[in-house]
Amino acid sequence: MNIYTLDSETDPFKEGRRPQAFAWGLYDGTWFDHTWGEDCTRRMMDKLYQREPGIVYTHNLGKFDIFFILEYIDKSRPMLIIKDRIVQCYIRCAKGLHKLRDSLKILPFSLDTYQKTTIDYTKFEQEVRQDHKDEIVAYLKDDCVFLYQLCSEFINTFGPAITIGTAAMKELKKFHDIGDVFTFAEDDMIRHKYFFGARVERYQTGVHAGEWRCYDVNSMYPYVMSSLYHPIGLPSTDVSLTVNANTYFITARGYSRGAFPIRTPSGVSFPHAQDTYSVSIHEWDAANELKLFDCDEILECVNFRHSRCFVDYIRHFYGLRKKARIDGDKIHEIFYKYLLNNSYGKFAINPESFKEYMLSADTADLRWHGFTVAELIPAFNLILWEKPAEEFNYANIATGASITGAARSVLLRALNHCDSAMYCDTDSIICRNLRGVEMDDVDLGAWKLEKSGNLLAIAGRKMYALFDGSACVKYASKGVRITPEQIRAAAEGAVITYRREAPTYRLDGSVDWLTRRVRLV
Questions:
Q1: DSSP-assigned letters across all residues of 28-63
Q2: Strand 382-388 to strand 418-419: parallel, antiparallel, or no bridges (unpaired)?
Q3: What is the model's pTM?
Q4: Are 86 and 158 in the same domain?
Q5: Which of 16, 300, 381, 416 is the most buried (most CB within 10 A)?
Q6: How far is residue 506's CA from residue 512's CA, in Å, rounded to a whole number?
Q7: Which strand (E) or helix (H) includes residue 9?
Q8: CATH label of the domain that carries residue 89
Q9: Sign of dihedral through CA atoms 485, 488, 493, 497?
């Protein structure tokens, strides 16, 4: 299999400026080539045309680089698009076709997690970049080489999977039978009632002085996959209003003291309220153990005859990850980390949104083939067509719902063993102190002290900063890239205006620049 890595260099990001590519690099494992100048894209496509057919990887292809080469995409082959990201398409070469893939789907991290050369991006400005050409080309080559090392080793280890989730599920099936797939009706019954995401809450907002500690779980999802049982196969047809050994989901009416999730117009919350709750058995057991739910009536129990934990798979790859860390094998340590953390996600994928896409000239009409217009792309005189995928399978959403519920149950127990909980997110808690849990820096499922500080600023969900003196030791700012000091200002009541310099490309060819106001919520 021929593997190539492709990358572009563009004008530096600047609000309001649509960057143009001025250089492309191509690497095949032994030989690097590049193009430079106004027609660099056309000349690079000519070089690719002369190469043997293969898989061409570009990092963040589907949200950036693809928009420089749309006109070269083969119009006779379907495209794979996931959540507005072009994940795979085809371009022609002399002896057939290249598969052009977004490597971010198998390597869901920035390249500096592995290795990346640093450079001053002001040297990329049109007026001065010719003076820095050698340095820029060396930087471009490094990006292509480092990406090649990752992609080629990923294929050597897991095969040519399109996404990390696909690779994880393939490996998991080598160790465990996961049972039957669901029908639409079975999937719908579980998904809309029992499937929730991670628990994310801020219990206080504002700026708070004190001794604050951030604790987190070592590999939360792999831990609950390996330590608790989860349903596989199809739900039983037996009707039950009593929780038994085969029960994995319960709907009940009663008073919950922050134990159970409900959906609200603003998202998932965990109220202290009388309501009807639909939960996993893991949350049910934790809430009853901690006396956080007063049950008035059980309305439904969903039972499964078959269940399993995924201990063999998790133990195998967690062990390989630990060995890679000890051996200094950074590539495989990264791979095994993301493989473990992505294995549960495939159970919850909703194939209803799976579609087949085709790109055509704006003079073509694919309606006779069952397609409808998804996007007009006037900038390139193209049309993007879509239709429902003809072949797809539901996974077992019950397995995914049970795993995510189990993760919430671990967090729930820990929240009830800590002093002054201020914030929690998926597998971590910020509080004054955490007691009554296993503490270890490496053991699977154990808690560890990650960071500590003396000032905590919380502006909202996914928006906080922990300071130790004047230094920020941990922060989160989902959706915007603002500084810890700006988060603190927002937590104190200021309104922070965030303008993203990097452009956002859309499938219709349009470009805009994100602007958001960050305030205390």
A1: -SS-EEEEESTTHHHHHHHHHHHSPS-EEEETTGGG
A2: unpaired
A3: 0.89
A4: yes
A5: 416
A6: 9
A7: strand 3-10
A8: 3.30.420.10
A9: positive
